[in-house]
């Protein structure tokens, strides 16, 4: 007779299978619509694409059930749904560029990156069988993360594209090291905060109902602030600095539940960003293009042309869009990468764009649910930090495209064209699912050690586990 736990696992696997079928159907339908409107629909080619997509979903489903059988059943279908929409829109842009005499193969290249990312996903699940082992490499991850973030500043190695210097050149290809640095820094933050949460949460004077940190505990915040400011000034990218600093502040709040850390962090970042905009012309130029995008002088200089074209494209999409293949997203520079959101907003409309953003909400919600359910403090912080990374990245790029905040060079996870982003985000999803497997696994472990610290008595969900 099957136990309740076995029945729950069986139902979960069946639900994931049906969700994967839905994601597969969305991918194939989107591809078919793009080919149809481009007068390029060939049923045999579409059939091979459908077969390949089904094969990829099946392989990932089996690998996940073997390597992480108790993991969340919603995350993988959500990711594949986003990728299916992305591949269709990038292929549609290839057709549009071809009509204008520009030969591109973004669609085929992105399929290759998706497959390579899926392989990285499986490798991570094979290599990391317990997420807690990453805590051994707390400071190593922090050092490597900072090095990766600063690599584009190395003369002769960094490349400036579209006004931001966040790439490094490897032969004829470009790599965005910040995409991998964010993962390493989340590991570092999780390990550091797990070890030092008592001092950060309980010590310090009170002011206006908030417990302020002691001056000696401000050291990590000051270091993160300085590093974020350096990234923003040297790489000419407010988005990378905001992502870097925002992940840290979010994880500090999860570890301490002190609003004072968030308030102090936001004040420091705003003051630093304003000061950098005044002191450094290239940072100020970004703010000027954001604040005065419609100004004829700013537009004619090219500083806000991309942003304005994207806004008009989304406006022409209206509520339900022009339909896949019926818009003109190719009129926006970098429509396949930085402005993939504007491209989808034009052809799918506000309704389609909200559906895509809902998928991101689901993905982040599952990461946060995993953080709540896992039993060790390091896993809670790690899962929450990875969720913050996805949230902030989507907010920063969507906010930039819609002119809510200054435009940056970040990529939209799983949607935008680019190998670095695709590989890094597959790794992020693999780590979330590894933690989820631990969180949802039936509790057959020995009793936890007694609560001995004030922080453990106040927040038993963050009780520190023995060192590995």
TrEMBL record:
Keyword GTP-binding: no
Entry keywords, A to Z: Cell shape, Membrane, Transmembrane, Transmembrane helix
KW Cytoplasm (keyword) present: no
Region listing for Disordered, in residue ranges: 442-468
Main location: membrane
Chain ranges passing through the membrane: 17-34, 46-67, 74-90, 110-128, 137-155, 215-233, 239-256, 261-280, 339-363, 384-402, 414-433
Bilayer disposition of the protein: Multi-pass membrane protein
Subcellular location as annotated: Membrane
Full protein name: FtsW/RodA/SpoVE family cell cycle protein
Annotated source species: Demequina zhanjiangensis
Top-level taxonomy: Bacteria, Bacillati, Actinomycetota, Actinomycetes, Micrococcales
